[in-house]
Amino acid sequence: MTLLLVAVAGGIGAGARFVVDAFVARHNPFRVPLGTLLINISGSFVLGVLTGWVIYGGGGDTARQLKTVLGTGLCGGYTTFSTASVESVRLWIAEGTSRGVAYAALTLVGSVAAAGLGLAVGALL
């Protein structure tokens, strides 16, 4: 049953990623893929909240199951390291080394910071 729930949540996460990325792309005046950046940072925050809630808030087996479904499924389907990597290289090639490296660094630092903040918020729940 858990596998089925993770698969369904993953599909929902992938659909949400598509919608968010398309929305941001329509409103993005820059040549930087802000949609993927926003997706990875927000997904890292949500996963951090879930993880902090389970680790520090207890919650028992139900919380762990929910973290598995939402963390692995929803957040796993929503976030995308591979797209961020390709977009970093694409920026490197099209816009120059500094833009590609800056995008990659911002993705990494922003996602890690969001996960840390999420852990702190989750610990309060």
Automatic annotation (TrEMBL):
Q: Where in the cell is it found?
A: Cell membrane
Any known activators or inhibitors? Na(+) is not transported, but it plays an essential structural role and its presence is essential for fluoride channel function.
Its membrane topology: Multi-pass membrane protein
- InterPro entries, alphabetized: FluC
Q: Name one GO biological process term.
A: cellular detoxification of fluoride
Sequence positions that bind Na(+) = 76, 79
Q: Which UniProt keywords apply?
A: Cell membrane, Ion channel, Ion transport, Membrane, Metal-binding, Sodium, Transmembrane, Transmembrane helix, Transport
TM regions (residue ranges):
32-56, 100-124
Q: Which reaction does it catalyse?
A: fluoride(in) = fluoride(out)
Instruction: Identify a single GO molecular function assigned to this protein.
Output: metal ion binding
Top-level taxon of origin: Bacteria
Looking at the UniProt record for this protein, which Gene Ontology cellular component terms does it annotate, in alphabetical order? plasma membrane
What's this protein's family per the entry?
A: Belongs to the fluoride channel Fluc/FEX (TC 1.A.43) family.
Outline what the protein does.
Fluoride-specific ion channel. Important for reducing fluoride concentration in the cell, thus reducing its toxicity.
Question: What protein does this entry describe?
Answer: Fluoride-specific ion channel FluC
The gene is crcB
